[in-house]
Write a structure and sequence with these properties.
single chain, 458 residues, mainly alpha, Growth Hormone, Chain: A, two-stranded antiparallel ribbon, 17 helices, 2 strands, 1% strand
């Protein structure tokens, strides 16, 4: 049996920098795209221009449809790219070539998403936005699917998987937090550049930084030293089908879809909750997100240590339930005689612990399942497992965007629609936790331990 090098923590941190890059670009689009093209009254009063119509068709907005179709396209291409990556025969390995060649286009398309040819409402703007959205999600798939497939390869032991999941969760938080800095940076530039251009310049600067981060692991990590680069022979479709035959993976994916549905509603609505329900300035969303991130990071060592002792199932199920309480409190923001800032701080602090748990452990759960499946089947389908997961949760994100843009338009002037999105997120999160309780963690871990013993005796 081939013995590969065990990745050191230094290598794992280098790898995690790539997630800092792609999560920054993803955070920009997740947190700002709908807000930029479907501005609330506060933003319009501040000088933002409408570039696409806010009208609805069958209850769906144009920006909601574009975002949802983009994510569905992204989900559909995930298994295709995963299959290509799993079967790639290249001197650099199966994953690194994809990461090297997709990083720069990924950054460029992110910038183009916020540039409209016509300075006003126009179908041309909608068409350009639609094309750029498809290209954005294609580039994201080409980088992220091979990137995620390296997680079980670099984290080849239980402790290493948890450590790596912790590291990439830290960089994910910082990447998403950087995206929340944009309203602050744009605010400083509005007087000289105008509302829209201040956002565009801020996004462009951050995108350049993100691309540099994504290229660091692509050029500094030698995949051949740590990973099994033997290409698979199965087609993408047959590999995807075999992946979903795994019962524990199906259980995980079902809970993951519900989680991402809830989280997408919450993330998309955060700027609206802050400005429309709490009556705060856009820039306060940055302050509140940083507060949540700092408190959440304080929990990371606790989650890391506890999961090694308790396993991953109990903490994840707890996080689902705790998060649902946070969403429910958000639904009542501004309704009780509490200042808006106090509401924001309460929500940020309560969200910190479940964000820490769900930021770290789900990736490790997928790594466990893919490793156990590899031992059972003899097929190295790590790329397909992560692609199948992203295929499922991106469908959840797409539905979340459609639900948010449709429900939030209900009695928009009173904020009722925004409150309803938080209530729906609460129900979805509780449902996801109940589904995850069906995951048989003991069976998966026992199979991995058996495989580790077989490797030592080989």
């Amino acid at each position: 049996m081939e013995h590969r090098k065990i990745a050191s923590n230094k290598v794992l941190w280098i790898f995690a920098i790539g997630q800092l890059g792609w999560s920054t670009l993803s955070g920009i689009v997740t947190n700002l795209l709908v807000f930029f093209y479907r501005p609330g009254q506060e933003a319009l009063n501040d000088g933002q221009t409408l570039f696409i119509t806010k009208s609805t068709f069958l209850g769906l907005t144009v920006i909601g449809l574009i975002s949802a179709v983009g994510r569905i396209f992204d989900a559909v291409t995930d298994p295709f790219i995963a299959g290509k990556s799993d079967s790639l025969r290249h001197k650099l390995g199966r994953r690194i070539p994809f990461m090297r060649y997709s990083a720069i286009p990924f950054g460029i398309v992110t910038i183009l998403l916020f540039i409209s040819p016509v300075n006003g409402v126009s179908t041309v703007n909608s068409a350009v936005l639609f094309v750029c959205a498809l290209l954005f999600y294609l580039c994201m798939t080409c980088y992220c699917t091979p990137y995620n497939a390296l997680i079980p390869e670099l984290g080849r032991t239980q402790n290493a998987r948890i450590n790596l999941s912790t590291f990439i969760s830290v960089t994910y938080f910082f990447g998403t937090a950087l995206a929340y800095v944009i309203p602050v940076a744009a605010g400083a530039l509005k007087s000289s550049l105008g509302y829209a251009n201040s956002y565009r310049v801020s996004i462009a600067v951050l995108a350049v930084f993100a691309v540099i981060c994504m290229l660091i692991p692509a050029f500094l990590i030698d995949e051949n030293e740590y990973a099994d680069t033997t290409p698979t022979k199965a087609s993408a479709f047959s590999s995807l089908t075999a992946t979903f035959r795994n019962r524990e993976f199906r259980t995980f994916v079902a809970s993951d879809i519900l989680y991402w549905l809830a989280l997408t509603l919450f993330q998309t609505g955060l700027l609206y909750y802050v400005t429309e329900l709490m009556g705060l300035k856009e820039s306060m969303s940055t302050v509140l997100f940083i507060t949540m991130s700092v408190v959440s990071l304080c929990f990371y060592p606790v989650v890391n240590i506890a999961s090694k002792k308790l396993g991953k199932k109990k903490p994840v199920a707890f996080a689902f339930m705790f998060f649902s309480a946070t969403f429910l409190i958000t639904a009542f923001a501004g309704k009780i005689g509490i200042p808006g800032l106090a509401y924001g701080i309460i929500i940020a602090v309560l969200a910190a612990l479940p964000m820490a748990i769900l930021g770290i452990l789900p990736q490790a759960v997928v790594a466990d399942i893919s490793e156990a499946d590899k031992l059972d089947t003899g097929e190295n389908r790590q790329g397909m497992f992560y692609a199948a997961r992203t295929f499922a949760f991106k469908l959840g994100q797409s539905l979340g965007l459609i639900i948010f843009t449709s429900v939030s338009s209900i009695s928009e002037s009173t904020g009722l629609g925004y409150r309803l999105t938080a209530v729906i997120a609460t129900v979805l999160c509780i449902s996801g936790g109940l589904v995850f309780l069906r995951y048989n963690e003991k069976k998966v871990i026992d199979r991995i331990k058996q495989g580790e013993e077989e490797e030592l005796n080989a």
